[in-house]
Design brief:
This protein is mainly alpha-helical. Helix content is 62%, strand content 7%. It has helices at residues 31-41, 65-70, 77-80, 94-104, 125-132, 148-161, 165-192, 194-199, 201-205, 207-229, 236-269, 272-302, 307-334, and strands at 24-26, 50-53, 59-63, 88-89, 108-112, 118-123.
């Protein structure tokens, strides 16, 4: 890849900036033969990805370095390569390549022609040094720890696009309609339990606290999840581990907050049934709020949507609706 004195022209073809000093590995060869070829031809790029091609030189897979180094030497490359490869068309612009880096958070992509033949490799170092203000005498390798590369790249991408206030409005307003819809549903729920509210003013007194606690807990959980998503791909294994951790945290938060509020109700009004209904519903609703805070950003990230914009309105809306359903239902059953 040619060195640049500044940020490259974002309208220029990405193929002009692609590296050519990389070995292509025959997918029908073994690990031993692939390593021999790599030793002979060398590795020129700083971000090392190995790509496998078929007999017609068409891209068929990518070989993670760890698999290549740890697999038995007699193993065919087809058995260890990842067949789903995300590639950038040679006709794409540098700006299009930026979007690939921000969306998928890989450190390099193959550039392919119409026949899926690899014509080069583009890596994030083309943009990272200038955008991060890092011009060291010795070039640093880009490592997975440096997620700020993608954050800054995405920020500059928005600057490059020069989004107008109207465009930003169109992007953000639809998600706020989720909040409007949730507020309408909450109002309908309150109307449906009007008789319950009339029988026990205590339920109405703590309604604001219930919603405030749920929104706070769901926002905390959502923020932690978005931070984790910056450095971890969303897989079933990752989600199961995060779910177990978040569930235990949610139970502890729910029991603690529910007990505190129940004690407040008891000391204030000496009403055991109200204390149990309000404290118990708060405990359950905080558990669901934590789970929404984990699940919604993870799902949006998996669907390639921006969780920083969309997760907030959706998570808070679901948490509020679920909290009111649990709160009013518990009050209706216990205090009737």
């Amino acid at each position: 890849m040619p060195e640049t004195a500044g940020i490259p022209d974002f309208n220029s073809p990405v193929a002009e900036h692609a590296r050519k000093d990389f070995p292509l590995l025959d997918a029908d060869r073994t690990v031993a033969e692939a390593l021999d070829r790599i030793r002979r031809e060398g590795v020129g790029e700083r971000v090392i990805y190995f790509f496998a091609v078929d007999s017609d030189k068409r891209l068929v897979g990518v070989l993670p370095t760890r698999r290549l180094l740890t697999a038995p030497l007699e193993t065919p490359l087809r058995e260890i390569m990842v067949r789903r490869v995300i590639a950038i068309p040679a006709t794409a612009s540098v700006l299009d390549a930026c979007e690939f880096f921000v969306l998928y958070k890989f450190f390099a992509f193959p550039v392919i022609d119409e026949q899926r033949r690899v014509v080069g490799v583009i890596d994030v170092s083309l943009f990272a040094e200038e955008m991060l203000g890092e011009r060291d005498e010795q070039p640093r390798p880009v490592t997975p720890v440096r997620d700020d590369v993608f954050e800054v790249l995405g920020f500059h991408l928005e600057q490059i696009r020069g989004a107008s206030p109207w465009r930003v409005f169109r992007f953000r307003f639809p998600w706020l309609l989720v909040t409007v819809a949730a507020g309408t549903i909450c109002a309908i729920l309150a109307g449906a339990f009007e008789a319950t509210l009339a029988r026990s003013l205590m339920v109405a007194f703590f309604l604001t606290m219930v919603l405030g606690l749920n929104e706070s807990v769901s926002a905390q959980s959502m923020s932690v999840t978005i931070q984790m998503l910056r450095s971890a791909p969303v897989t079933w294994s990752w989600f199961a581990t995060a779910l177990r951790r978040e569930l235990m945290t949610a139970i502890l938060l729910g029991l603690s907050c529910g007990s505190v509020v129940a004690a407040i109700v008891w000391f204030w009004r000496s009403d055991l049934r109200s204390a149990g209904a309000i404290g118990g519903s708060i405990a359950l609703s905080l558990v669901t709020a934590c789970l929404f805070g984990l699940g919604v950003p993870s799902l949006l990230h998996r669907l390639k949507l921006d969780p920083k914009i969309a997760a907030g309105p959706i998570t808070l809306a679901l948490a509020d609706i679920c909290a009111l359903v649990l709160y009013f239902t518990a009050a209706h059953i216990v205090l009737r």
